[in-house]
Amino acid sequence: MPNSVLSYEPLIRLSAFAGVFALMAAWELWAPRRPQAIGRFRRWPSNLGLVVVDTLAVRLMVPMAAVGVALLAEERGWGLFHQVSLPVWLEVVTAVVVLDLAIYGQHIAFHAVPLLWRLHRMHHADLEFDVTTGLRFHPIEVVLSMVIKIAVVVALGAPALAVLIFEVLLNATSMFNHSNVRLPAKLEPVLRWFMVTPDMHRVHHSILRHETDSNYGFNLPWWDRLFGTYRTAPKAGHDGMTLGIEAFRDPAELRLDRLLTQPLRNDGRSHTTLREMVL
């Protein structure tokens, strides 16, 4: 990846984020999929505040981001792709697909392991489902996710270009598939064969456990079908389904301080708090 392009990495990522966010926010106003009982002014300050906290946490705890690690791996000859000779385009495509599979596996782990679920459930506790839900993650989860991505990047010897493409895609598709937007009825079933749609991912945010534990994909939709975690629609339908987590339905839980400390509280899946598990 040319250094001239790398020097614009922050601008590329910020521009993609701002452009997709603005597009989805406008689309939600123009063609919402579901009415919202709790509006943007109640939820967005905390959800967007988490973006700032998460960014600072990653910068402080993982100073060298995944793209930088990819360049270091290339310089040191680390990883599979530096031991074999493949066309650059094939390395890029393969790396993007493998990274997406890794995030799918990570997502399942964050549901299955109680300690990890306590971090991830904050994402699910949002009482509505819109573009900011796709940005709502606990900073410790974000740091752990970055560590996992870095490990995959080093093991593969993934090209820096592939890592940048994947990071931009993951952020953009997360905002898209969490958006409260209505897609044309004939287009949506076709589109979900190629990418995760909002109707496909909304099932994952159901209050029902067996629906929450399905449709884990963020970017590519094939993993759920391949590994048997795909669910077509919620039992109550998209208009009738309840979002969130039963233990955190008080609107006071939408405050930023409550979101950051939520892992310390019990949600009914276990009888111990995170503090008790650690101590």
Topology:
Layout (H helix, E strand, L loop, with lengths): L2 H4 L2 H22 L9 H22 L4 H11 L11 H25 L1 H11 L14 H18 L3 H18 L10 H4 L6 H5 L6 H4 L9 H5 L29 H6 L12 H5 L1
Helix pairs in contact: 2-8, 3-7, 4-7, 4-8, 5-6, 5-7, 5-8
Structure description:
With 279 residues, this protein is mainly alpha-helical. The chain is globular and about 55 Å long. The longest helix has 25 residues. The chain has one domain.
Q: How would you concisely characterize the structure shown here?
A:
The protein is mostly helical and 279 residues long. It has 14 helices and no strands.
What descriptive keywords fit this protein?
279 residues, 14 helices, 0% strand
- How many distinct beta strands? 0
Major pleated sheet: none
Unreliable stretches covering 5 or more consecutive residues: 271-279
Principal-axes shape call: globular
How many individual helices? 14
Q: By helix and strand content, what is the structural category?
A: mainly alpha
Straight-line distance between termini: 46 Å
Please trace the helix and strand order, writing H or E for each element. Answer: HHHHHHHHHHHHHH
Mean pLDDT: 92
- Give the helix proportion (percent range): 55-70%
Q: Proportion of β residues?
A: under 5%
What is the alpha-carbon Rg in Å? 19 Å
Number of domains: 1
Protein name: Sterol desaturase
Transmembrane segments: 12-30, 51-73, 93-117, 146-170
InterPro entries: Fatty_acid_hydroxylase, Sterol_Desaturase_Related
GO molecular function: iron ion binding; oxidoreductase activity
